[in-house]
Amino acid sequence: MKNFANHAVSRRAFLGGSAAAAALGLAACGGNSGSDAKTDAGTATGGKEGGGTLTVGSAYAPSSYDPANCSSAFCLSANANVMEGLYNIDFTDYSVISGLAAGDPVEVDANTYEVTLRDGAKFSDGTDVTADDVVSSFERATAEGGLYVSFLTMFDGIEKKDDKTVTVKVSIPNFSLLKERLAIIKVMPSSLSADDAKAKPVGSGPWMYTEVSDTYATLAPNPNYNGEFPAKDNELRIESLTDTTARVTAQQEGTTLVTESVPPESIDQLKAAGCDVDQVNGFGTRFIMFNVKKAPWDDAKVRQAIMYALNTEQMIQNAFSGLAAIPTCYLPESFTNYHKAANTYTYDADKAKSMLSEAGVTPGDLVLRTTDNAQVVAMGTQAQEDLKALGFNVTLTSDQSPATYAAIDQADDSWDILIAPGDPSCFGGDTDLLLNWWFGDNVWMKTRCAWNTSEEWKKLNGLMSDALATSGSDQQDCWNQCFDILSEQVVLYPVLQVVTPTGSWRSAASPKGESVSSDFKGIGTTGVQLTSINTVTA
């Protein structure tokens, strides 16, 4: 047997080349951005590290915390401090960091690996973490209908070898993303009920939940944690501040030390107050999806025409204050596996009209749906005007995400086009995962977009499978072909790729005399990364 370390992806940054520092925006307000800067946080200012309350402003509201099916941005971010996988992800660069495993997987053969749990690992309730807990957590995560199933299809099973060791079987020989995918499976006690998992899960991470509500979650250090990243503060409090004004005010006043999703128009305001604002080019997209079950959206040329009809430059200025980019690939340019796609789309109304004419389409009634995200609503308003200019009679309907998708999931002809936000990189950053979220064998392709019966979808998924079975340039070539197919078919495709701004009292103390350790970094997806982060007080 030999130790298994991920080939090109272990500790792999998703940002590449000299663009990395600029893309991460680590020194946006003159703060020390080095990864080795933490030692300076206390000594440079004479501050005390830890022992306080680490406060975070979330842009989202909590729902289910269930680690086996969590999709809530609030709950995912909170769970990252409580739950561990065999391995975990550092979302500042999508590298793999330590979790419950004592080391790398040990290869038994090309399809079989063994993983041993770290000595003395316990859940916050004091019970030992065992191989049985890992197996049951895998079974929960892969149960039929589960949110993460399409991410985990390469696992043939996880079995108990002994109390501290599990045997992992995969269908793809020498699977290069093993640790990244094991990180998706969060380990919880076998005895934890489904209801308790949704309401207040128990984990083995550095923090444990003490109180959860519709508007906040409070956490305390897990006294039984013996891993690499112990909590140094007395409390972690995450506030649901969905109102942008309330979120910015809380950060400016120092009620929160970190806030996610700073509105573009408020960045200068927070900087003037002394906050750092990291601006990270992540995978976050504002995408368009067509109802391909009905004409004329079953025609790729018509879908392409709509892409050319959208005045994306105007959307960037009006809705994002410049903090977004027009895609040239399914992946943003800052991602390692980026490859300029065969088809790119910039605003060209004349070309859009010409393509509709060539396709024999006479514009008629059109139902454009959006979620109620403020930026997306603004994009929808712009799109409505752009499509009217082509001759369509556009009805614009904006609603909360659950209501929007409930309507679409009826799988009828009541809608034509959707514009919505989406970001699967909150689960991980590898290219296959980002493709699989929308284009795997799941609800998006079966019901919402209903593209899974097409030859193009079958070819795409074949290439995705081929990519997982190879590495290096061969793998990149498979993904490049995937990007080209998606850019040609545009059944579901990024309209814009956005910058994620995160505010923190890091270089300077808040009005309350507190800051966070200087190695805090904003991330390019929802939530905040708090591994090893603590308060600093004067």
TrEMBL record:
CDD domains (alphabetical): PBP2_NikA_DppA_OppA_like
Gene3D superfamilies membership: Dipeptide-binding Protein, Domain 3 (3.10.105.10), Periplasmic binding protein-like II (3.40.190.10)
Highest taxon in the source lineage: Bacteria
Pfam family, one: SBP_bac_5
Annotated ranges, domain Solute-binding protein family: 97-441
Compartment(s): Cell membrane
Keywords per UniProt: Signal, Transport
Annotated signal peptide: 1-21
Membrane-protein topology: Lipid-anchor
Chief location of this protein within or outside the cell: membrane
Family: Belongs to the bacterial solute-binding protein 5 family.
Name of the protein in its database record: ABC transporter substrate-binding protein
